[in-house]
Design a protein that fits this description.
By secondary structure, the protein is α+β, with helices and mostly antiparallel strands. The protein folds into 3 domains: about 80 residues, Rossmann fold (3-Layer(aba) Sandwich), CATH 3.40.50; about 60 residues, ATP-grasp fold, A domain (Dna Ligase, domain 1, 2-Layer Sandwich), CATH 3.30.1490; about 170 residues, ATP-grasp fold, B domain (D-amino Acid Aminotransferase, Chain A, domain 1, 2-Layer Sandwich). About 30% of the residues lie in helices and about 25% in strands. It contains 11 helices and 17 strands. Strands 9, 10, 11, 12, 13, 14, 15, 16 and 17 form a 9-stranded antiparallel beta sheet that branches. β13 and β14 form a beta hairpin. α1 packs across α10 and α4 packs across α5. The chain is globular, with a radius of gyration of 20 Å. The two termini are about 40 Å apart. It binds adenosine-5'-diphosphate and magnesium ion. The site of magnesium ion (MG) has 2 residues, from loops.
Length: about 350
């Protein structure tokens, strides 16, 4: 176990809004941050005291970075595993390269979940259109085709309602690493943010209910409007996942919730802080960002109970131009990610409101 005190330097791979909010939480606890990221004008560099602008495959730059920091973490999961393997020869990296490998590939991720007895959508990996036609005979319609790697916000996905729709979907995804999943007619999507410390202590946030618009998260409501018993069941599944992975840090688990069995199916996991946990900044004594910093630095995990019912709304693209409205609203906690251009579909900020009663 490594314990780092205030004054230590936390290296963060990735410079998006998640890196920005991690750096702010690290500063609150007295740590320095060093952002490593290839992009110019990234949201995190405005709030960090150190920055390396290099690509993730630059071995010399990675080693130099590793020598300048006391621990490394990441804010998005598409860092090459080979880069993390290089870093870990010089500095502790949390979450581990093994966890990263599993969560980068939807096939390995689903195999892992099923191996530990957790339900997912029925699935089959295919590499040709002919294999896909065969797999669809077993999985049935509608089905969702997904690229095994690099998908986000619904990108790299296509729904097929019948076999005639396959050629177009196959051409659109343009990949030989595809997973076909049965379409799950869920009642609700929820997520659980689970944290595990280096000492094995686990603390989870209340499940959040997630509502998407155009495949992008629009609203998160915590706690999710399911029974307390169901909430406990979802948390138990998330606890099992972080324990089995020997995980260190915060991990997000996305679920489909259905009224018919199996009630919970895990859709995917993300080895990082997550958009559906942003409400924790104002709604809990410890935010997901602070919890992640605590876990990787070997500090005790913090309390995750809710002060009230929380609602987080993402501000996508032009939504950010309503900033003054939010600033005038006494209940709105407004966050701007410091991005200059409000392109459609781009996450520009978010707003959290806390309502006093938790049912
Ligand atoms: N098998 C499925 N059945 C029903 N809906 C799905 C299925 N897979 C994905 N979706 C819908 O698409 C969204 C995005 O898919 P997801 O696998 O989470 O990819 P990502 O978040 O990486 O883009 C999900 O939140 C859900 O609304
Ligand atoms: Mg998802």
């Amino acid at each position: 176990m490594i314990k780092l005190g205030p004054g230590a330097v936390i290296g963060i791979l990735g410079g998006g809004q998640l890196g920005r909010m991690l750096a702010m939480a690290a500063a609150q606890l007295g740590y320095h941050t060093h952002i490593y990221c290839p992009d110019e004008r990234n949201p995190a560099e405005q709030v960090t005291d150190r920055l390396s602008r290099n690509c993730y495959t630059d071995e010399a730059a990675l080693i130099k970075f590793a020598k300048q920091v006391d621990v490394v973490t990441y804010e998005f999961e598409n860092i090459p595993v080979a880069s993390v393997e290089i870093l870990r020869q010089h500095v502790p990296v949390f979450p581990s390269a093994d966890v990263l490998r599993v969560s980068q590939d939807r096939l390995q991720e689903k195999d892992f979940l099923n191996d530990i007895g957790i339900d997912t959508a029925p699935y089959k990996a295919v590499s040709t259109e002919i294999e896909a036609q065969e797999a669809l005979k077993i999985i049935g319609f509608p089905a969702v085709l997904k690229t095994r790697r690099l998908g986000y916000d619904g990108k790299g996905q296509a729904i097929v309602k019948n076999s005639e729709e396959l050629p177009k979907a196959w051409a659109k995804l343009n990949s030989h690493e595809i997973i076909i999943e049965a379409f799950i007619p869920f009642d609700m999507e929820i997520s659980v943010l689970a944290a595990r410390g280096q000492d094995g202590d686990i603390k989870c946030f209340d499940p959040a209910e997630n509502i998407h618009k155009n495949h992008i998260l629009d609203l998160s409501i915590a706690p999710a409007r399911i029974t307390p018993e169901r909430r406990q069941q979802a948390v138990a599944i998330a606890r099992k996942i972080v324990a089995e992975l020997d995980y260190v840090g915060v991990l997000a688990v996305e679920f489909f919730v259905s009224s018919a069995a199996p009630i919970f199916r895990v859709n995917e996991i993300a080895p990082r802080v997550h958009n559906s946990g942003h409400w924790s900044i104002e709604a809990c004594p410890t935010s997901q960002f602070e919890q992640h910093i605590r876990a990787i630095c070997g500090l005790p995990l913090g309390d995750t109970s809710l002060y009230g019912r929380a609602e987080m709304k993402n501000l996508i693209g032009d939504d950010i131009h309503d900033m003054d409205l939010y600033l005038k609203d006494p209940d709105a906690n407004f966050h701007h990610y410091g991005k200059k251009h409000a392109r459609p579909g781009r996450k520009m900020g978010h707003v959290t409101r806390i309502l006093p009663t938790v049912k």
